């Protein structure tokens, strides 16, 4: 995916300004930055929640900026939401089956795909439960399963590690690494849990106040003076960062 100079304003506020980055096919990249840096706004522009005010986004050389979310899903981009929003009154299996129906109209086929994903994500024994009755870690897994069920080539993960214990984070990291190795799926993740970012990403883009302030390997980015300034600088700020947000060293442990 090629993101070129995208920008988005909300009334007077520049949420994202002139942001450019690439995510090569098959890669795992991360988008990090303190709370309010513009990460989710970038995801929303990529996923078609709203069009960028400026700039272009292309998947495999095909322009996608400004398409509707369903068109973007059909073009091969799946996403999770920071605030998980499954259909609470439906079972886990039905939730994933609905995702799979984006790919096939054949319900038994969609159900079979859903069951396979639930097995892969360790949710098999919960497939008959209502989504509303899941624990948070299981809801996160369900969210990933729903996104994957749409059959994406590019998976956008918005804070899927938030609220997970370190062992649960490690399980999710292992699952995503294996998925990427097995299927070649491209992954772009927004994540505050640095343990996961470091373990997963080959390349990191750092946003601050809507602008890209650094990008590079995890090794380089965690030593970048501008990045250290943003993260460490906030520790002295009068308002502490929200949970897991900026204010921690980017190479910190799970938050
Ligand atoms: N729909 C919207 N309407 C108005 N302002 C918005 C909207 N979405 C985001 N913003 C504002 O844009 C800025 C960037 O927000 P965004 O959610 O993209 O940041 P983020 O980096 O994802 O933060 P977080 O880590 O807290 O999720 C913030 O100041 C936010 O308040």
Automatic annotation (TrEMBL):
Residues 1-234 form the ABC transporter domain. One of its GO terms (cellular component) is plasma membrane. Keywords: ATP-binding, Nucleotide-binding, Transport. The lineage of its organism: Bacteria, Pseudomonadati, Pseudomonadota, Alphaproteobacteria, Hyphomicrobiales. This is ABC transporter ATP-binding protein. Signal peptide: none annotated. Residues 232-255 are annotated as: Disordered. CDD domains: ABC_Mj1267_LivG_branched (cd03219). PANTHER family: AMINO ACID ABC TRANSPORTER ATP-BINDING PROTEIN, CONSERVED COMPONENT OF ABC TRANSPORTER FOR NATURAL AMINO ACIDS-RELATED. One of its GO terms (biological process) is L-isoleucine import across plasma membrane. GO terms for molecular function: ATP binding; ATP hydrolysis activity; L-isoleucine transmembrane transporter activity; L-phenylalanine transmembrane transporter activity; L-valine transmembrane transporter activity. Pfam families: ABC_tran (PF00005), BCA_ABC_TP_C (PF12399). The keyword Ribosomal protein does not apply.
